[in-house]
Specification:
The protein is of the alpha/beta class. It contains nine helices and seven strands; from the N terminus they run E-H-E-H-E-H-E-H-E-H-H-E-H-H-H-E.
Length: 262
């Protein structure tokens, strides 16, 4: 019970990596986890399942992190109900369909910035007065593509690169309060979004095989592995701040064919 009696907020926590964080912090950390998403049905289902398993507890709050007032309410209600906030995991976000820059509108980019980046800034701003009291920590979910680039994803990669840079800058400022700020940059983690891509592919089996083969370890990561890295950062990595932690199975290593031919 490495995070017993601690209170963690997870945004975008009803599925994917966010759900992995909720499960690990509740089941392995023994923490109280307040998590949000826009999908109330998914959120309530995860809340019930996590609480059946324990030994920590999960509390779902419906919130749309593209709305600043929802983020403020999430933080304020968590602090009021539980008296403290020890860890904030900013995870909510979206990856638009792959397409060239010509196909993205300016409004597309602005909307994605609000969801993927401004929400992180707002959650940090509202949570930090509580985190400073307990010398807590922040974990911002970035992406491997922030450092590698990705075809057809200029808007998404821009938001993730900004998250990584924001994490480092905030770590510098918050060190004075002994609040640690770190990033996690996943590569291919098997999530519902990945399954949607597999299902939509002309050859689903080949799509899944290609996804697995992109890593040196020959498979995609799991949402629980992402959750365990976050629990390690929150509970154990007490001398680590301002670091971007790659969770990729070695996807970025070794040479490979890069030229795209028609």
């Amino acid at each position: 019970m490495r995070y017993k009696d601690k209170v963690t907020i997870v945004t975008g926590g009803s599925k994917g990596i966010g759900a992995g964080c909720v499960r690990v912090f509740v089941e392995e950390g023994g923490a109280t986890v307040v998590f949000c998403s826009r999908n109330e049905q998914e959120g309530k289902a995860l809340e019930a399942d996590a609480n059946r398993k324990g030994p920590g507890r999960a509390v779902f709050m419906r919130a749309d992190v593209s709305r600043v007032d929802d983020i403020r309410r999430l933080v304020d209600e968590t602090a009021a109900r539980f008296g403290r906030i020890d860890c904030l995991i900013n995870n909510a976000g979206w990856h638009p369909p792959h397409q060239p820059i010509d196909a993205f509108s300016i409004e597309d980019f602005r909307s994605l910035l609000d969801l993927n980046l401004v929400s992180y800034f707002a959650a940090c701003k509202f949570a930090l007065p509580h985190l400073r009291k307990v010398k807590g920590n922040i974990i911002n979910m970035s992406s491997l593509v922030a450092s590698m680039g990705q075809a057809g994803a200029t808007t998404y990669v821009a938001t993730k690169g900004a998250i990584t840079a924001f994490t480092r800058a905030l770590a510098v400022d918050e060190a004075a309060y002994e609040v640690r700020v770190n990033a996690v940059s996943p590569g291919n983690i098997y999530t519902p979004l990945w399954q949607e891509a597999i299902d939509a592919a002309p050859d689903p089996g080949q799509c899944r095989a290609d996804g697995e083969a992109a890593q040196l370890l020959g498979r995609m990561g799991t949402i629980e592995e992402a959750g365990r890295l976050c629990l390690f950062l929150a509970a154990d990595a007490t001398f680590t701040t301002g670091v971007d932690h790659i969770l990729s199975g070695g996807a970025e290593l070794a040479y490979g064919r890069k030229t795209r031919r028609s």
